[in-house]
Amino acid sequence: MAGNEWINGYLEAILDSGASAIEENKPTPVNLRERGHFNPTKYFVEEVVTGVDETDLHRTWIKVVATRNTKERSSRLENMCWRIWHLTRKKKQLEWEDLQRLATWRWEREQGRKDVTEDMSEDLSEGEKGDALGEAISLDSPRKKFQRNVSNLEVWSDNNKEKKLYIVLISLHGLVRGGNMELGRDSDTGGQIKYVVELSRALAKMPGVYRVDLFTRQVSSSEVDWSYGEPTEMLSTGPEDADGADLGESSGAYIVRIPFGPRDKYLRKELLWPHIQEFVDGALAHILNMSKALGDQIGGGQPVWPYVIHGHYADAGDSAALLSGALNVPMVLTGHSLGRNKLEQLLKQGRQSKEDINSMYRIMRRIEAEELSLDAAELVITSTKQEIEEQWGLYDGFDVKLEKVLRARARRGVNCHGRYMPRMAVIPPGMDFSNVIQEDIAEADGDLGTPTTNDLASPKAVPAIYSDIMHFLANPHKPMILALSRPDPKKNLTTLVKAFGECRPLRELANLTLIMGNRDDIDEMSTGNASVLMTVLKMVDKYDLYGQVAFPKHHKQSDVPEIYHLAAKTKGVFINPAFIEPFGLTLIEAAAHGLPMVATKNGGPVDINRALNNGLLVDPHDQQAIADALLKLVSEKKLWEECRRNGWKNIHLFSWPEHCRTYLTRVAACRMRHPQWQTDTPADELAAEESFNDSLKDVQDMSLRLSVDGEKNSLNESLGLGTAGDDLEVQDQVKRVLSKMKRQESVTQDSEGDQTFQNVPSKYPMLRRRRKLIVIALDCYDGNGAPEKKMIQIMQEIFKAIKLDPQIARLSGFALSTAMPMLELTEFLKSGNIKVNDFDALICSSGSEVYYPVTYTEEGKLCPDPDYVSHIDYRWGSDGLKKTIWKLMNTSEGGEKNSAIQEDVKSSNSHCLSYLIKDPSKAKKVDDMRQKLRMRGLRCHLMYCRNSTRMQVIPLLASRSQALRYLFVRWRLNVTNMYVILGETGDTDYEELIAGTHKTLIMKGVVEKGSEELLRTAGSYLRDDIVPGDTPLIAYISGQATAKEIANTLRQISDLRPRSITPVDILYSTKQHTNNNRDTIPMTKFVHKSFGNLLDNGPKATASCSGVAVISEYCKGNSSAVEYPLELKLIGLHIEYVSFATDQTEHHLEVGNTGYGNYDSSAKRRLLVSLGIFLRSYYKGGMLGEQSASLPRASILTEGNLLASLVH
Hints:
This protein is of the alpha/beta class. The protein is 35% helix and 15% strand.
């Protein structure tokens, strides 16, 4: 090899001691021991010459010879060579470790299949009998090549128009917006972004779909465009064929941006993991508000829950699983690209160890998120069959063979013993062909020609991107070989350039155009992308490809169709040479524009070419095969035309309507779930009644007058707003409120009601009345797992801390979250003279049970939440779990006496299997147990608790942290207003309790030893991947802190600060935001009759808000106020947070309610309801309210009593 001559001479020289010289092109095989003597030098030579890339060696040699001193140069060269040998040995070692790991994994999987077979006493072959839902059918026509048989499903059609579904999609990373997408800006902003945006639009146009929300991260950073900081963005209206009356106020597709993580930083996806739970809490708040709003619009007053929550990629899948569990609605998953597959590819390269890969890509955290997504998903959507077998098949939670067995048993109604596998469905991504213009058949069959002189002379005829490409090319009329991808190493662009440069016939016949994202300065690009781009530029120089290769610096998303069109007019070819392509959306786009393709034979292109039959597949590692395929297509006119026609003929298989129809058909086959309770239960009525009465306490002689267009009217009079229908609606709403104001405190119980709600305790439904919840989740246990007495002392100090301020105490409730069962917990509290009635909720048995104290009956009695069990029951199989766990935790020869565990019957319940750990040395890590259970199709949440003395197994989506979200969903007590008190360590679910939007107080020195050492195996993800390192929501305090110190610390991590404000009256106008067009709604004026004369010429307003209400409250005096949601739950307003700002002349209190703006804007056409109620505040000091975020502030009008007003 000529390229190795520079090193061959040196390597031969160091072999003068007796080793024979190596041949230039045919090195002799290595014999490590020759005549009993080991020759490491010759072994080293063989490894360098035959096992190392020439380009890398040559690059290093150039650096070495830069030294002028010959002696030093020789020394550096020798060191370089030995380092190469070391790296080669390391690569082989990593390969060996990888083989061992895969062998162990395969053995575990086979053992799992064996156990399943034994438990179910049936042979695996029964899964091969076929299933009309799961098996591919005959490939007689192009349509059937991609569609699986859904003959026993009702295909989605216009008959579903009346369903009015609410669908939630999640795609967290990257930069997401509806127009001018910055695809290729970085590795996170790629094809997935375009896919989810177009899917949202397409779904919103389908019959039966009312609203689609696409959740992503809100980024308010100077690094990116301001549009990524907008809370909402409308993508489209509802179905095109619907009339205006049917569309509804909130119909259509929207991007909803949820703030989580650092507000002022754009984070790459690997750094988002610690902030996932914060996103979940924010998204949950939006969904709850939207469900209520849609319920008022289309649900007859009942909440409209999401039909499905669909996560895209691992981070969104993790989030979707938690949201699915909190809301009890089905989850769907699309992986896009998978962590295990990437890990295998990186390990095969041999350049990085598993630890290095994990550190750079957070790959183990990603894989665990994908495993959890598989656990929770009802349906997994893939682009190709290869993705199911070769990618998802690598996961513990999915086994193709076992899935067939379970599916066959379920179809016949046979017990699966608690085992589940998600259903996989191949649905190719869709594409919008509305902007694709295809030439007529005559032109397609004839000579398409090239851009003519007249075309080039007309600026309207030739898009600007044409000139950006053509100025690179000496002869732009030659066929164009087009590659469009990021300059990512896995896209294999360097092999393409090399193949083009070394094939002279191809260079003479065609040009090469590389659209490699957008760049301003190569030095500012990421290391990987910059490296690929520099290599391409060097190859252009090496092969002297100037005038034959185009690589423009910039292009817009709107330019892409024109680029395809230019390549087609020159009779060019589109190529995707990626090492592996999960799907290949660009191949479909190219086919739609009439371009034949050459694509990698690894991944999605195989199925695409089978459906379209419009090109050739190649081995991406074989540059000669790439060159031959390209040359064949550009040189054979008939073959080119045949591929073009085939692509156009079959492209309809990849349209968005076809994709969405199949998608909705599959989703409709999922087991639908939703919260089981009704909002009008007796308990809820009592809660609302007491809450309302409490808000209006001591308010007498309420004769509020509302001013509309300058006239003052009583609440009992007609309001004169809008149409007559609006008037009636306003009057009805006001009458309902007045009827509640006049209602007596005593509530007659329905003797014929459910016994569970007989004498419904005020505290049970009154949990929603709490504005703050102090959650005590300390895991203080001794060596035997018994609770320590110091927990009692700490609880008492916390009670005292809250009672220091009567105002705070009135709004605050307490919850206790523990691994102890209810009976043991009550006995423990009783031993410390703490009443269970001091708590509003008890979360017991690691989150498998929720209880509320009873006050109307005997002291100390607890009432279980009747809805919680059904809420967490998803995929719970206690019988199969009990049998399998016993096998896994006990040796086969030991019997029960020598077993590592013993069932703890007293601590177990219907949804919690509790075991005593008899021998801690035999206890398997949570990671290990979870893997084995997944391989056997068992889905659960397993943890060690109580100082590693217990192992508890509860339902998959149940936990202490999820129980807090349940309280939010059930009683609308926002997680943001919860304060969780923890130790420095705890049970293995401890980390889940730290992250989120709640405030966390960590008490040092309280918990001496937890169970976290049994959580993770070596090489797993780290705590930093779960818990954010630097956040203002987490505070630390000594375990010996006094009540005053605890109170001060809680105040510090609260959003509010001390303030002193003068009472004011306020006035607002309301505006709607629809697709960036603002339509002003007439102003509604609120003036208290006693202070009307203080205003000059009547009240005026200078502020506006996006359709929602502005709240102020009557207060007096000065004091340190705290965060508070107002008592307006009866009319549907829930305040999430408040913040305060002041200057010398004005005082402002911003009241934020996440996601509520959509609800209010949706009500704008229905009516402009005005409702004023004087409230007596819990606080001292006046406050002015306005919805926060992008809304302007209100001007102060005058001093006086405050008015609480709602405009919606």
